[in-house]
Amino acid sequence: MNSTQALVKSFLDSPFTIKSKSQAIQLHAQIIKTSAHPILFASRISTLLSIYSNFNLLHESVHVFNTLHVPPPVRAWKSLIKTYASNGCFVKSLACFVQMRGFGISPDHNMFPSVLKSCTSLKDLRVGECVHGCIIRSGMEFDLYTGNALMNMYSKLWSLVGCCGPESKGHHVFDKRLERGEMYRNGGGLDWNDGKLFTRSDIVIDGVRKLFEVMPVRDIVSWNTVIAGYAQNGMFGEALRMLREMGNANLKPDVFTLSSVLPIFAEYVDVLRGKEIHGYVIRHGFGEDVFIGSSLIDMYANCMRTQDSNSVFRLLPYKDYVSWNSVIAGCVQNGLFDEGLTLFRQMVIAEIKPVEVSFSSIIPACAHLTLLLGRQLHGYILRGGFDDNVFIASSLVDMYAKCGNIRIARLIFDDIERPDMVAWTAMIMGYALHGHPRDAISSFEQMVLDGVKPSDVVFLAVLTACSHGGMVDEALKYFSIMTQEYGISPCLEHYAAISDLLARAGKLEEAYKFISNMQIKQTGSIWLTLLTACRSSNNIELAEKISKKIVALDPKNMGAYVLLSNTYSASERWRDAANLRSNMRNKGLKKKAASSWIEGSF
């Protein structure tokens, strides 16, 4: 063995001594020059493939893999599968796994995390379940890293229950490749029956917890995965319980734990508990972490504590686009539109390039301020090449509609290649606000024909349009379609739209029965709409019944007293009006003076 061969052998024996891509390529050249024997060459090439995989060199990895004799060893398959997954080629990663199984080669424990990552990224729960079955058959379900990857997959794909069959996007691509014979040459592959080892309820609902419980060793990643899984799927109580159990296991929360927990308190609007976590963050030196900072900003903003939110932002030593977007969105959602626009300008001056979510956050501020600002922002979006983004386009449609320019809103909508539910909702609501009920209804029908499933918000827009157009029969028809055909439970706004329409159509008794039969808790505000109509029609008997209901729900509701008093006055029942006003004074009730702002040049 000469000195060159000895050097090559030493590098291959300690592959982590290769520190750069150029060194890996040079090693490849030396292997070709010095490895004459085929078996020695195959062994060294497999090691080289592992080195290329560590550097995510996709082209080089594929080239090296194709030089190996069929079938390649498991080490080579593992490296190629990992490289494909690391480079976002998830279908090819799964294809390699299936092809390897077709050769009868058993996977090792280091292979499954990459395969499960591909299933997660493709959002294909069915394939993931099959891989899980393969893991159990291979006896590797207790491996720490495989268990973490399984929990991560199930946590992220929980929402796909009921829609994860062959029609899912990732599985559709996967099946097409199977049909073309691209997955394997020798048959076999992944056994689809492996997925039948589990039931939907056992795996998808309780799967993460069960996987966690059977793990013999749990590291911080295991705990973070199960906590994040519960939090992301709205099971906040379970997530907090797991956090307490984590503390009992003598493990301290890290950055990822805290980033998962903080949104829970934002959802609960529990600023006190959120501040406790904030104190923990400061005491343990996480205060300068940008991810924790962004989570704290969101938490305070959702709890309507914008001053605290802005303070956290100012104290961050490094501000990335996530933290900027969080503080801007927090200002806008709390009605501080001018401050949100000021922060957006500061972000641009700081040379932080806005992303899609930046515009989706700031455009609503323009809708509440002036169309001039909205046009300036629209020009910035066009110059930045973001106009083809469906979320930004939907926000622009909403902005122009709210600012009074329905024609431009429609032009922007027509330029959207594939309008989603949000875009359709913005357009339909725009027509509703501008008093074009027929256009709103025709847009809704076209949306359904295009295969977009309507949401409760879309139906609210349609009902609002019907209400503005006085279309009673159409409104009742779509209310029935919403509840019976789509199984959507009506909320207060849906009931309010129908009751308002019936009241303005003069059908006061029908409106009274409709509200009385509501499937949700009644509020004083929905009765006030009907009480206003009673005043217009001088229906004192019904007005008195409604007033009693409002006072029973909200004894300090000024609107009920004032409207009933005005109804008495309109019917020239002055004594009743005076008695009611006196009763108001005795109860210490006083009507607050209203005020409003208008834009103008003075």
From TrEMBL:
<keyword id="KW-0677">Repeat</keyword>
<feature type="repeat" description="PPR">
    <location>
        <begin position="420"/>
        <end position="454"/>
    </location>
</feature>
<dbReference type="Pfam" id="PF01535">
    <property type="entry name" value="PPR"/>
</dbReference>
<dbReference type="InterPro" id="IPR046848">
    <property type="entry name" value="E_motif"/>
</dbReference>
<dbReference type="InterPro" id="IPR002885">
    <property type="entry name" value="PPR_rpt"/>
</dbReference>
<feature type="repeat" description="PPR">
    <location>
        <begin position="219"/>
        <end position="253"/>
    </location>
</feature>
<protein>
    <recommendedName>
        <fullName>Pentacotripeptide-repeat region of PRORP domain-containing protein</fullName>
    </recommendedName>
</protein>
<dbReference type="Pfam" id="PF13041">
    <property type="entry name" value="PPR_2"/>
</dbReference>
<dbReference type="Pfam" id="PF20431">
    <property type="entry name" value="E_motif"/>
</dbReference>
<dbReference type="GO" id="GO:0003723">
    <property type="term" value="F:RNA binding"/>
</dbReference>
<dbReference type="InterPro" id="IPR046960">
    <property type="entry name" value="PPR_At4g14850-like_plant"/>
</dbReference>
<feature type="repeat" description="PPR">
    <location>
        <begin position="320"/>
        <end position="354"/>
    </location>
</feature>
<dbReference type="InterPro" id="IPR011990">
    <property type="entry name" value="TPR-like_helical_dom_sf"/>
</dbReference>
<dbReference type="GO" id="GO:0009451">
    <property type="term" value="P:RNA modification"/>
</dbReference>
<feature type="repeat" description="PPR">
    <location>
        <begin position="73"/>
        <end position="107"/>
    </location>
</feature>
